[in-house]
Amino acid sequence: MTTSAVTIRPCAGDDLAAVAAIYAHYVEHGVATFDEVAPSEEDWAGKRADIAARGLPFLVAELDGVVSGFAYAAPWRWKRAYRHTAEDTIYLAPGATGHGLGKALLGSVVEAAREAGIRQLIAVIADSGDGSSAALHRRFGFHEAGVLREVGHKHGRWIDTALWQLSL
After folding, report:
1. Residue 38: exposed, middle, or buried by beta-carbon count in 10 A (0-12, 13-18, 19+)?
2. Which residue from 58, 112, 126, 130 has the least number of CB within 10 angstroms?
3. CATH of the domain at 135
C-alpha cells in the first residue's frame, strides 16, 4: 500500500501559477465557478493579498510536494455589517481527489476562519451534478440554507446554486 504525503500551508507567491492552473480547469470545463474567463496569476496575487490583509486564510494543499489544491475564506459581502461572515472556496487539481486533500483543506480553512473571528461560514455550491462538495461540507457540519434557482448560465445550461452555512 502506498500512502501520499499531504501538507496544508499558507499560499505563497510561488504557488500562484498552480492555483491559476487548477482554477482555469474549472472555468473551462465545469460549472463549479461561474467565471467564464480564468483569472491571471496577477489577479490571483491581488486576491491573495486582499485576503491576507483581512486576516483570512488562503491555503494550498501539497500532495507529495506538488500543489494539488487550494482553499480560502473571503468576505461574504462587502458591506461592513457582514464582516463576521465569510465564504469558503475550495478547488482540487483534476486527478487529486481521493487523497484527503478536500477534508484537510476545508478543516484548515474552517479553523483559521474561526481564529480570525468569523462567526458564519457560507459555501455557495453550484449544481454540477457531482455531490462531492455538498458531502464534504456536510461532513464539517454545514447545513443547506437555501437554493437559488437558475442564477447562472454556463456551457449552454441554467445552473442552480445551493447556499450552505456553518455557525462557528
Report:
1. middle
2. 130
3. 3.40.630.30
Q: How many domains does the chain have?
A: 1
Strand order in the sheet with 143-154: 6-10, 58-63, 66-75, 85-92, 120-126, 157-167, 143-154
Q: In this structure, are residues 5 and 64 in contact, taking their beta carbons and an 8 Å threshold?
A: yes
Give the type of residue at 79: K
3-state SS class at 75? strand
Amino acid in position 31? V
pLDDT in tens, 54-99: 999 999 999 999 999 999 999 999 899 999 999 999 999 999 988 9
Would you say 142 and 126 are in contact if contact means Cβ atoms under 8 Å apart?
A: no
User: Does the pTM of the predicted model rise above 0.85?
Assistant: yes
